[in-house]
Design a protein that fits this description.
Arc Repressor Mutant, subunit A, 10 helices, 34% helix, elongated, 4 domains, four-stranded antiparallel sheet, alpha+beta, 328 residues, SH3 type barrels, five-stranded antiparallel sheet
């Protein structure tokens, strides 16, 4: 079977051989790469006329050489669709602005940009004003906390953290960090918490200090993050499997239909034009917030205890407004 050898890989091979200064010719290059001399000749012409490679033939040495010292072909080959994807990628980087990883991502992107041929423009002039990315609200992670947690996640080192929930005093915890998660503008670390003796999720923005303990851990063989997070709605998880049904008013039915809110979701159409969304989740905290955001257009049908929880939250909100003087 013939080997699959794409042109760009072959061009890099020719570039390396010519750059060594040993004056390779079409025959020697073709024999080493296992292609025809005509193929190599076409590649050389492409390098000279399309990639502006300063390549010439030396009659004295019977081979090719670069007329400019230290010339190298760019390491990347890009189609127009690839370039457009790169252009949008840079736009998407803004969602990480303000996080410790932002500078690193920009640095990597800049290196990719610099590796492209000079004649290729990363910024289509007509597209500059046509695409905008509104980043999600993001939290701030302390640089040293980020650095330590990243290192511990990668090296499976146990870490001691000082974690502070809103309105409470900081608590020292020792955790084995299993997984880092980015969700809606916040970074989280999921791992074994020795204080609670269970797997917990911690917002990195609420971690005040982080320090290696020196202990190395192994992730349990029964820990499966994909399975753990498979029925989540938000970033919090548990071992529960809760079946929830929510009825949405006809006014917002189209909005519900047009999106995939959860992998397990099923939508049933009602004769009234309403829709009933069914899904199975393992935690209700963020699902509750999401349902409340729909106001009077969403009603929990099942389970009953969750419906009561939503009703109490609505009543508390209504009582708050009733106790507040109305200003005209």
């Amino acid at each position: 079977m013939a080997k699959y050898k794409p042109q760009h890989s072959r061009l890099l091979f020719i570039d390396r051989k010519v750059g060594e200064g040993r004056y390779p010719n079409c025959s020697s290059l073709a024999e080493e790469w296992e292609v025809s001399s005509k193929t190599i000749q076409r590649d050389l012409e492409y390098m000279r006329y399309q990639l502006d490679a300063p390549i010439e033939y030396s009659a004295k040495h019977r081979g090719y050489y670069y007329t400019e010292e230290n010339f190298n072909l760019p390491a990347l080959s890009m189609k127009e669709s690839d370039l457009f994807g790169m252009y949008l990628s840079e736009k998407l980087l803004i969602q990480y602005k303000g996080t410790p990883i932002y500078k690193s991502l920009c640095s990597v992107f800049k290196k990719i940009e610099q590796s492209l041929p000079d004649k290729i423009s990363m910024y289509p002039a007509n597209d500059q004003e046509k695409f905008t990315v509104f980043p999600p609200f993001s939290t701030t992670v302390l640089p040293n906390v980020w650095k330590v947690l990243l290192d511990c996640l990668r090296s499976s080192h146990q870490v001691k953290i000082q974690h502070k929930n809103p309105g409470r005093e900081p608590v020292d915890r020792t955790i084995d960090p299993y997984q880092g998660v980015r969700f809606e503008g916040d970074w989280y670390v999921v791992g074994q918490c020795y204080l609670r003796n269970e797997i917990r999720t911690f917002s990195m923005s609420r971690i005040l200090t982080a320090k290696k303990t020196g202990e190395i851990f192994q992730i349990p063989t029964d820990f499966n993050f994909k399975k753990l997070s498979g029925s989540h709605f938000g970033v919090h998880w548990s071992d529960d499997e809760i079946k929830v049904k929510i009825r949405f008013n006809i006014r917002v039915a189209d909005y519900v239909r047009e999106r995939t809110w959860h992998p397990s979701q099923k939508i049933v159409e009602c004769e009234t034009g309403d829709v009933v969304l069914s899904l199975t989740v393992n935690h209700l905290l963020e699902l509750k917030r999401w349902i409340l955001s729909w106001g009077g257009d969403a009603q929990v049908l099942e389970p009953n205890y969750f419906a009561r929880d939503i009703m109490e939250a609505v009543n508390d909100t209504a009582a708050l407004y009733k106790s507040t003087p109305t200003y005209v």
